[in-house]
Amino acid sequence: MPVYAFLPPELPVFTYLDATKRSWIESYFGLDTLCARSRRQVDEVDRAALGNNTLSIFSSDWARADAARDYHVPAERMAVVPFGANLIDPPSRADVEGWIDARADKPLRLLFLGIEWLRKGGPEALALVRALRTRGVPATLDIVGCNPALSPADLALVHVHGFIEHSSPAGRDKFHAILHEAHVLLFLSRAEAYGIALCEAAAFGVPAYANPVGGIPTIVQPGVTGWLGTMPFSPEAAAETLATIWRAPNQYRFIALAARVDFETRLNWGVAGRNLRDQMESALARRAAKLAP
User: What's the pLDDT tens digit per position in 60-80?
Assistant: First the structure.
């Protein structure tokens, strides 16, 4: 149980979270997986923390909306600051523009990132590749993060890279090489509090086709930096969107570059840090004004 939830209210407290505990558990596992006592404890901690915090900062509009809905937190006691990409050495804009141009007229390379094949929408990604193939689009899927059990027919559609250790120079170089050759990141999660992989892909000028769940709509701007599908996921609708964009290289280039610009202006930790500082300073100023005699 986090001790900050029960600190004296006269102490300034700030939290930076991707979701409340209730939303996190409900999205990923379902509250019905907890006994009644645990549910009460989850709500008690959230209610105490959100009630006492000087400012509760969330990474997405979804998380902020859940806090307002479930705990009636006033809008002035909350803020949204998106998380940034976990990249030590992001590529330059010039390199990214060259990679985007090099993708033109090449078979459509889609990318799946995730250790959890099912939760991250691996079967849906395969269904999308098959739907694209029926439309005459030479699509393939790079699978990074796991080694799913696939049929021989499915193996013919994919390149399985398994888990790549990003902390090693060799692993990082391999991962970056896959990223800069990918046309689109498929992020078809069934549950997702945020999705930092979307920010990392944007740094490489790789737009995403994603499910509109959890915090994802805060990252992906539909029709601008990527595309949001529907729930339940429709491989046919997704295939129609991606087939159209693959056949329109100028439109693809516009969206891929917009994703990169979004990384530079919004989805990196430098920007997030400055936004956090500004939000906390503003909250402290409001607090001081209220406490002034």
Answer: 999 999 999 999 999 999 999
